[in-house]
Amino acid sequence: MTTAWKSTNQKSTSRECLNREFENQATNTISGTTLSSWSRQQKLAMIAGFAILGLLLAVSACSKQSSKPALVGTSSPAATSATPAAAATPATIPATVASVPARKTPKKRPANVTYSDANSGVSFVYPRKALLTSGDKAQPWLTAVGDVPMNFVQPGGVAVATVALPADSYPGTDFESAFFNVSVNRGTSEQECEHFAFVDTRDADGESIDAEKVKIGSDDMEMTSNFSVSDVKQAETRYYHSYENGACYEYVLGLGTEGFATEGGIEHINRDQVFAKLEKIMATVKITPVGQEHEAEQAATGMTGGR
To answer: Which of 30, 66, 129, 190 could tie 243 with a disulfide, CB 3.0–4.6 Å?
Structure first.
């Protein structure tokens, strides 16, 4: 009985062991199969993950590369916005310049000047480059004769003004000087104003020449002339008389030259040309009726005093 139990016991034990081993094998087989199948999926998942990660990295790299131009494009508006500011800078320059006072352009001075004398009522236009003297300094002068005298038949003449042309007016010629002079004599009658103190001496024989009537501008005048010669110099003067406003006005045109010789290429001055220029000054002379204004003032004063 005892032996049979042990044997049965051993058999059952052997069966249990076999069953356990079978179960273990089955379990190991199932678990091995499961482990091997999960590792493959994991491998596939890992491969897929790496592939996806690589794709993401590639996309990220591409996006980074594409983002660089985008940044440039983004910065370009700033540059563009800066460009108008830079472009606007020149526009602001005129405003700055406008705030600075503009430099005035000097006005060109007129070629001619007007002279007027209230005491004599004389006014005329003369070249700005010419030299004007008035009053006591208005005595005309030429090298060949010195002071040029007045030619009134009665004393009492007063020099008003003299205009002398520049010495370099006619370069390359024997021109030395030329002038225009005006004087007034209130102690000479209208008949006396038609005559001169000394007669014309232009005649080569030395005979006198009567005064002649000429027209200067719109005025009729009496005219005579004088010609003086020294060893190397010549002087010619022309006198004109006009009676206006109770006074005799005398106009003198004078020309001085260096002489007859034309050494060193010097030419004789064209006398008519010089006198024509002086006559232009004389043609602008205007006489204001000083005496009439004075008489009108006296009459007005007397009427006022009578009242």
So the answer is: 190
